[in-house]
Amino acid sequence: MAENHPRGASVLQPRFPGVPWVRIRGWLGIVAAAAALLATSMALAWAPTDAVQGDVYRIMYVHVPSAWLAYLAFVVVFLASIGWLWSRRPIFDAIAVSSAEIGVLFTGLALVAGSIWAKPTWGVWWTWEPRLITTAVMFVMYVGYLLLRGLSTDFERRATRAAILGAVLVLDVPIVHLSVLWANSLHQLPTVLRAGGSPALDASMLLTLIISVAAFTLIYAYLMAARVAVEVARRERLWIPT
Amino acid sequence: MDTNVAFIVAAYVIVWGVLLAYLWSLRARGA
Question: How far apart are CA B7 and CA A125, in angstroms?
Fold first, then answer.
């Protein structure tokens, strides 16, 4: 495979010659930063105070997007893993490891923000209930995925092992999301993505949440573009096929 | 603002701080 990807040939350039990736990434970063500023302003100043929780519910606007982006990141790991197993194109492996790393980051942020929200509302930083346990398990599993990648220096073997694991671990994503329905849970039930009804949320709160999720999605896209570029550059330095 | 303002500030500072730190680490790695 290495002979098909001579050293120095970027993974992106041969397939899309003339596309100014660095400039596109720069604009993506500007749009993501503007969206983040808008979302934070709406979350802290525009969205109304909750009748029951007061202002502390505003943590939702960073907690929920973090959790959803973790889901998205791990679905991307799954798709890229299938892509590698199907085509053996190294870019899929680079996308998988990048998305797994960023997914672990967002899962950690969802856990921390959720813990900070739990203390004033539940009275505890942590409790052993289904949503928290399955999320913590998801965090540990994807940390394991990243550690597994360090066990082999053979590129093809490592990519294939990781892809098999990445394709299987995604099963935890629906388990995390539906865990609040399967067992008695202290955690709130699904509010937006729920079966048989429209979102159970005030319109202005829902709009703020949608803007927040959009901002986090743009940030994910920007971080992915940067992380994949780092991965490609690293492989070119190490003469690993790109 | 209610009495839980410290929790709100902590959550936002940690989330945005960690994301900025990660971005900074990517730039340090050559992104």
Answer: 11
